[in-house]
Amino acid sequence: MIEIAVIHESPKVTEASKEFLVEIRSRGFTAYYIRPSKLNSFLDNGIEFNYAGKKLSLDGGIVRNFGFLITTEQLMKRVGVLEGMVESGICLINKPRAMMLARDKFSSLMKLKRNGIPIPPTALVEDPFEAMRLTERWGEVVVKPIVGSLGLGAIRASDPDIVFRVAKAILSINQPVYIQKYVKKPNRDIRSFVIGRRLLGSIYRIAQTSWKTNVAQGASVQVLNPSRDLEEMSIKIAEIMGLDYAGIDIVEDEEEGYKVLEVNGAPLWKGFVTATKISPVKYIVDYLVQKIKK
Question: What is the pTM of this model?
């Protein structure tokens, strides 16, 4: 029997993880919910993995989260153990290194830009004066956490003094300042959902009460019939990032066309399902099982 883990650092099983567990078990497979903090590796006569003191044997897993407020050392341990599982033949999606890249917004955009994907002007700085100068240069900017999701903590401003103050606050807690030129666009963005080398679908996320287009921030959703260009670009982005599945956030620049804001290696799908009536869960599990059986 195939044994598959859903890997997420949370004491409470999240709704997304529950959906995966139900889908895996509905196929007659064994499903586990695993927290990376309780996952360990031992090097003795060979390489062994255990979970909460019990030997662990898996065919595959779906990696959702390493943990949020953790130290560098904890992150290294968790990613290292998961990488060891991959090297031992356990099929994980997304791969830990690809997840780490997607988690780092700036490194993600740097890699995409090197590969010819259009992105907005973006910077990562540790000097509030530099943030202020960038605001003077770009006119209107968005300052957001380098690691984060759901639109939380993102601030839009055109006043250099306000950006200076925001930057100082961020730097005071030992975080770098991630700053991006605001893209003039319709009051919406696009979320593309890619699994394997296939675009499952795309939706518009339409701002209702603020400039933010995240569903978690109150945006409404509408299904989008993607153009060939959008489809090809979305698939290429997931491939560049090394992601087996991804949620890709794209804006329509009024002057320059599509630009990529970020790539999510563990996307949620509530808005996507509302708009398309398609749940990605079945297709992600299908893809994983196919990889396990190869």
Answer: 0.91
